[in-house]
Amino acid sequence: MENSQVQLVQKSIPPLNRFVTALDINNLVAQYGTPLYLVDEDTLHAKARELHRAYSKFRGPVKVAYSIKANFTPAIIRAFMKDGLTFDLTSLGELYFVKQCKADPENIIYTSVTEEPDEYLEVLRNGVRRIVVSSHKGMMNLAMAAGKLGVRPMTMIRVNPEVGVKAEVRASYKNGKFGVPFNGGTIDSATKMVKHMMESDLLKFEGFHFHLGSQITDFSCYTHALDKMDAFMTKMKKEHPNFHVNTFDIGGGTPVFYNDPVPTPAEMAKNHVDRLDQLAENHGTFTLMIESGRFLVAESSILVSRIVNTKEYNEHKIVIVDAGYHILLDAALLKQEYPQEIIPVIDSNNRTTSLAAPATVKNTHLAGRLCDTYDVFPVSRASDLNGADVGKYVSFYNVGAYSVVFNMPFHCQTKPPIVMKESDGKFRLVRKGTTYQQLYTEEGGDLA
User: Fold this and answer.
1) Last residue of a domain, one of 247, 265, 292
2) Sign of the CA dihedral running 200, 233, 192, 206
């Protein structure tokens, strides 16, 4: 693993996904204004194929599930429906979105955190039959809902392998929020839950799910988790003669480039496909589920913002744009280093307009429009802010994950429009920007 990390550092910075030209950006800004999100449909399809292809050497069926919490824009959901993806949902709101998009309930896996009885009733009424439970109480609530409706859902247990994870966001650690341990000394353990499910007439045991974290580049955590799963499944087979895993979901974690080069899905899969094959050989063939939110959508999207002011002192240049962390929250939350690039202004005759003479400064800092200390955008190693002058545009790349879903009205800011470049090359508005009047009404202004 140390050697693979050394090789990773030596990798070159990958090219940015420039799916629109400077002229395209100027034309779209003239029509929709800034800030403006741009999404590329072809990139969405390409990422879905890449992730599925990475695990193609697994000796069994492979399915890719899109975690729509990363970006629930309906146009993106519909694009992934064309790829036949499964949709990983965790709320009734997300269920409503995929239902409105006419997604097949057979292609839904529902993983709740709250696991409430009424929630499960609504999920089952909508035809969803693949459910992940994360607690003994949740399992009992699902059984109660299944009994009321006379259905028998395929039920998976979310396991917390309690392995060390070196990642930007960790989801597996001792006494963690998500899932249950193999043996925790209480009814909230995978051992007790498997036993109950194997004896249940209301729930059909389907398999296991775990999720280790986000932006994982050290794959030893998967090795340790799969070794622990192997030992646990061996134990369960001895205790329950009819024990069999039909679906095994290893969650997400496939990394995306922001600042440092990251391994590809193929390099990631190479680390543990052999162990997954061994798991299937030891315990019977299963469908392998690969989840992803960030990887599938991040590189599909650009945020275009306009430079509205600059100031210079002590050989530093502060560049202020009309965006802010209200529409790129991870820049403040996780110090996400989105790659940025200056886009020139092009006039009606397709000529590049020089708005100001470039100043010679040592350091350029990119700041947002919010009156908040944290509204400063970290700069990626791939960023190029040369020629940042008032009136020009800044493209923020790889913003498709966890940006749109975190849009918030701090300082009474409204949501930007979203335009998709469809596979036929045409641009289509897929979300209207909101207005101050709409925000005022939403906040109760008309109720006074």
Assistant:
1) 292
2) negative
Q: Reduced to 3 states, what is the DSSP secondary structure of residue 17?
A: coil
In a domain, residue 120? The reply is yes
Helix, coil or strand: residue 362:
coil
394: domain CATH number is 2.40.37.10
Asked if 118 and 261 sit in the same domain, the reply is yes
- Whether 270 and 373 map to the same domain: the answer is no
Residue 415: burial class (beta carbons within 10 Å; 0-12, 13-18, 19+): buried
Q: 220-239 vs 265-283: helix axis angle to the nearest 10?
A: 20
- Of the candidates 179, 187, 165, the one whose C-alpha atom is nearest the C-alpha of residue 210 is 179
- Cα–Cα distance between 438 and 434 in angstroms, integer? 6
d(CA 347, CA 328): 29
Q: What are the distances in angstroms from CA 208 to CA 131, 183, 192, 226?
A: 11, 15, 14, 11
pLDDT digits (tens, 9 = 90+) for 29-88: 999 999 999 999 999 999 999 999 999 999 999 999 999 999 999 999 999 999 999 999
In the numeric block, which tokens belong to residue 216? 């994982």
Number of independent structural domains in the chain: 2
Are 337 and 278 found together in one domain? no
Please tell me whether residues 273 and 239 are part of one structural domain. yes
> Which of 211, 132, 135 is CA-nearest to residue 170?
211
Q: What DSSP letter does each residue of 298-349 carry, written as one string? A: GGGEEEEEEEEEEEEETTEEEEEES--TTTSTHHHHS-----EEEE-EE-TT
Residue-number span of the structural domain to which 179 is assigned:
112-292
* Residue 279 placed within a domain: yes
How does pLDDT run across 192-213, given as a tens digit for each residue?
999 999 999 999 999 999 999 9
- Assess whether 264 and 122 both reside in one domain: yes
Q: Extract the tokens encoding 260.
A: 């440092």
Q: How do residues 158-169 score in pLDDT, each as one tens digit? A: 999 989 888 778
Q: Are residues 303 and 284 in the same domain?
A: no
- Neighbour tally for 221: CB within 10 Å: 20
- Domain match, 303 and 288 both: no
Same domain, 259 and 402: no
Q: How many CA atoms lie within 13 A of 187 on its CB side?
A: 8
For all residues of the chain together, what is the average pLDDT?
A: 93
